[in-house]
Write a structure and sequence with these properties.
about 375 residues; alpha/beta; seven-stranded parallel sheet; two-stranded parallel sheet; 14 helices; 9 strands; about 45% helix; about 10% strand; globular
């Protein structure tokens, strides 16, 4: 089976809506009209889903669905950016609402429900690929498998607000930490937090308020170490009851260190991880390590809007893969020349067609309009 077909946590959430696939859940939710709110400040997605649930066994009650929707609308307004969620973004937030509610309301029941679903799920998997039962220590890790460009940064910010709502008075969190693969992405997140009125700061060894401030700490995975150094901080300095967010953490690291550090930080807290390339990262592993990672992430990925869905919805770029038939200097020269000409053509079209392209929201990477 393909990796995407073994996402048991995602399958469990879909089952609560009486469907077995993302396509079945999403088919009536794609209209942009549903991105609006009604006169009571409920989203039109809520009304569409409520009608859908009428034909199911109503595992999710109308009252719960409305509560989740009201939370999403309230958190969105808190960010103050006038956001309107696409259907896949709304569903991602809704899945998180459901899970956090169940996790903090009755963790033992959630564990039992997941293992009942997993047992049935395993009947459709080859014997060699069957997933092990959930244990309680696995419940505090969630992963979102969302394509690049699908709004992971804004979803991450919403997930912080969602977690704070459901966890209030039920868990002691030391720090909220965002782990990134590089300095550029750290600075980008800082700007986005500021735009959403969320207090955050980029890690610095010179920052005296690092462990005193309530701000979200943004730190590159390379700056987490086993001991304090000139540019690193010991993981143990943060204790182990943190709320941890990992944005493509595996991209900025090698070996198992990044994952070990992540697990230490959130051992008695909670972790969210975001990536567009979970399948690729796992497939790059081998042997027992690959099996271990696959077992973990198939049980942790709560939402799957990977590139195939992104592309089929019309958001992805058309692409072609050109493999060189031989590794000669002449071939390389021709390939690089063609690539530069293609790049020049894109720039030329953009520069001569800005007025025409403006209504479509297309802008060049140096553009400051967004």
């Amino acid at each position: 089976m393909k990796f995407n077909e073994k996402l048991v946590l995602n399958s469990y959430l879909l089952s609560l809506f009486g469907v077995s696939s993302f396509e079945d859940l999403a088919k009536d939710l794609k209209s942009s009209q549903l991105e609006e709110l009604d006169e009571s400040d409920n989203s039109l997605f809520y009304h569409e889903l409520k009608d859908k649930l009428i034909s199911t066994n109503k595992i999710i009650s109308d009252d719960k669905l409305q509560e989740y929707d009201e939370n999403i609308v309230r958190h969105t307004k808190t960010m103050g950016r006038g956001l309107k969620w696409k259907y896949f973004q709304y569903l991602s937030l809704l899945f998180i609402e459901i899970y956090l509610d169940k996790y903090f309301e009755d963790k033992e029941q959630l564990l039992e429900d997941l293992n009942i679903h997993l047992k049935e799920f395993n009947t459709s998997i080859d014997k060699k690929e069957k997933l092990s039962e959930y244990n309680e220590t696995e419940l505090n890790k969630l992963a979102l498998y969302n394509a690049t460009g699908s709004g992971k940064t804004l979803l991450l910010q919403m997930n912080i607000l969602q977690f704070n709502h459901w966890s209030k008075g039920k868990i002691k969190i030391n720090k909220t930490v965002l782990i990134t693969p590089n300095e550029g992405l750290s600075n980008q997140h800082l700007e986005e937090f500021q735009a959403s009125n969320i207090e955050a700061e980029v890690f610095s060894k010179d920052s005296k308020g690092l462990f005193e401030s309530n701000a979200i700490e943004i730190i590159e995975i390379t700056k987490l170490g086993e001991e304090n150094g000139d540019k690193t901080v010991a993981v143990d300095s943060f204790e182990d009851n943190n709320l941890v967010f990992i944005d493509e953490g595996h991209r900025g690291s090698s070996g198992d260190k990044w994952k070990t550090n992540r697990d230490k930080l959130s051992k008695n807290g909670f972790a969210f991880e975001y990536s567009a390339t979970f399948a690729q990262a796992i497939n790059s592993a081998a042997g027992a390590k690959k099996k271990e990672l696959e077992n973990e992430y198939t049980k942790a990925i709560i939402f799957d809007y990977s590139y195939k869905y992104f592309y089929n919805d019309g958001y992805g770029k058309d692409y072609s893969i050109l493999n060189l038939s031989e590794d000669s200097e002449d071939i390389k020269q021709t390939y690089l020349t063609a690539s530069l000409l293609s790049f020049y053509q894109q720039m030329k079209i953009y520069e001569s067609s800005k007025t025409t392209l403006k209504p479509y929201g297309i802008c060049w990477f140096k553009c400051k309009c967004r």
